[in-house]
Amino acid sequence: MNWDDLQYFLAVCRQGSVSGAASLLHVNHSTVLRRLASLESSLGVTLFDRLPGGYALTSAGNQLTEGLAGVAEQIESAQRRLMGADLSIQGTVRLTTTDTLAQGVLMPTLAAFQREHPQVQLQLVVHNSFSSLTQREADVAVRGTNRPPDNLVGRRVGTIRTGLYASRAYLKTLGRRFGPDDYRWVAPDESLSHLEQAKWLRANVPAERIAFRADTLVGMVEAVAQGFGVGLLLCPLADARPELTALAPPSPSLDTQLWVLTHPDLRQVARVRAFAQFLFDALSSDPRLQH
């Protein structure tokens, strides 16, 4: 017995006619007839007598009606409870982002969201490559990229700027008469070779001038702060370090767009939708980003 057919049977019982059932279920007349025929075939009985004034239950139909008493109401009640649970902001939300954004930008926003929605448990997945939102490794991604994946949906919240920085202590070691040719450099390693600052360094800085390489932008900030040399650093991270000073204005060619992304199938999950909107609102007004 196909359970989908039962709603058509119950609708005819309730309305007393095929046309009434079709109107109730927002389907055409032939669909109701086909479903009734399917149910009667699967059960091997006739459920209705087709009379000029409408449909009347047979003895078998009456038995089936008695057996289904309250089932429709229970199903509708269960649906309402499940929908109500989903519409409430509770449960787990998994966020994937980079160590740079987690440490330098996102933590205050995550704390503010959790204070507003204490029934949501946040799980942070820190990774410098995209976790698969399709396979539910994460629900929401916050990523710096100028080419977001085509299979995700989301909104751009701003731009992360990159500038040239050095520690004040390092600059003192160079003396008064120094120029860019005297700099030692902190650079990304090969795992970050796709970044615009890595491309700029390959084109403009001889390899022998590289004093330190790191596979994380957070590590680069720390290395510059410790005096290894100058570096192209993300402004939100570098500006928060009082021992660092900017040597040049941020270059637009090194700008990176910041996106809040999710999978299309998750957009209507209440906690995911609320979390993504909260991130968008907070980051869209974050003074550390360019808007």
From TrEMBL:
Record-linked Gene3D superfamilies: 3.40.190.290, Winged helix-like DNA-binding domain superfamily/Winged helix DNA-binding domain (1.10.10.10)
Family to which this protein belongs: Belongs to the LysR transcriptional regulatory family.
Organism in which the protein naturally occurs: Caldimonas mangrovi
PANTHER family, sorted: HTH-TYPE TRANSCRIPTIONAL REGULATOR (PTHR30537), TRANSCRIPTIONAL REGULATORY PROTEIN (PTHR30537:SF3)
Translocase recorded as keyword: no
Keywords assigned: DNA-binding, Transcription, Transcription regulation
Ranges of residues in domain HTH lysR-type: 1-58
One Pfam family from the record: LysR_substrate
InterPro entries, per the entry: LysR-type_TF_proteobact-type, LysR_HTH_N, LysR_subst-bd, WH-like_DNA-bd_sf, WH_DNA-bd_sf
Record flagged with keyword Disulfide bond: no
Domain of life of the source: Bacteria
Full protein name: LysR family transcriptional regulator
